[in-house]
Please model this.
Amino acid sequence: MKLLKKYNLSINKNISVVTTDNKKQILSHFISFWDNIEEIKEDLLPEIDSVINGKLEFNDIGADVVGLAYIEQSNTKLIESDLGHSDFELPTSDFKELIMEWLAILESTDR
Model:
């Protein structure tokens, strides 16, 4: 759970990703939106991997009103939040690892 800590993210008692850092609200909400293990494995991770592996130059993945992850090989931008959250950018490798850490948490809680 190194990257969750690096990005000032934590898991609350309701098994949601939270942060007190206003600049990372879109990141915590985006991750929490993806709370279905099967959808993460079958949809989200393959979409991220398609860019990392060079199959696609970029990809965008939505999370309803939370915003959009615009994924490029080197960086991922979380943008267009209807909730008023600031845009946020991070390395795509970190974004994928955060999703993997979140998936491990979900799997360990039988969610």
